[in-house]
Amino acid sequence: MYSYEKLLQENKAWAKEKIDRDPGYFERLAHLQKPDFLWIGCSDSRVPANEITGTQPGEIFVHRNVANLVVNNDVNLLAVLDFAVTQLKVKHVIICGHYGCGGISAAATKRDYKPVLNMWLRHIKDVYRLHQKELDSITDNDTRIDRLVELNVQEQIFNLAKTTIIQRAWKKEQRPDLHGWVYGLKDGIIKPVYEMKAGTQIDPLYEYDDL
Ligand SMILES: [Zn+2]
Fold it and tell me: Which residues surround ligand 1, an ion (CB under 5 A)?
């Protein structure tokens, strides 16, 4: 059996188990999606949103990319954000990074990862530059990278707040709250590192007043 065939076989077993426990399970989900949460996480295979939060299908709308970045011209992310905030009307947006993130570690080196990855990792280098004084003062390398993981999450929260999608929802419906979390690969625990309530005043330079 090929490795991917195992996935299809496991899928059948999973679907059967769900129906055995609750015959209306898929019928209900097929008709309704009303998640309260948008999750923006890292693509890392060790950080599955539903599994580590004990949530079921239907509860979290998910977007994942390398190092959980919110890039202001990323059409993919912005489409997900707009749909989740404007249409699904989620109450919370969670950015979840994780310690031991390969993308974050890579961005902190001088290695050339070639054009596409370099382009993506550049956003993390910019986060480093914004917090260079604090980061350079940390002598232990692992501790310094862990802190960069946290600061990256914080900066991505700011990036969310800079979008008209978030600002419009804040102004008109006083939601969603923004949550910055970091997941620990070594202990499975999520640590909240930064929070921004709906309607928080941000740098006026990034505020729109004609939403
Ligand atoms: Zn990662």
Answer: 42, 44, 101
Which of these, 149, 165, 11, lies nearest to 86 by C-alpha position?
165
Would you say the pTM of this structure is higher than 0.70? yes
Q: Which of 20, 22, 28, 44 is catalytic?
A: 44
**Beta-carbon count within 10 A of 92 CB:** 16
Q: At residue 85, what are phi and psi to the nearest 5 degrees?
A: -80, -45
Do the bridges between strand 177-183 and strand 190-196 make them parallel or antiparallel, or are there none, so unpaired? Answer: antiparallel
pLDDT in tens, 26-38: 999 998 889 999 9
User: Bridge-partner residues for 68, per DSSP?
Assistant: none
Which one, of 107, 206, 197, lies nearest residue 149 by Cα? 107
Among the listed residues 28, 64, 92, 101, the single catalytic one is 101
Residue of 22, 28, 46, 111 with catalytic role: 46
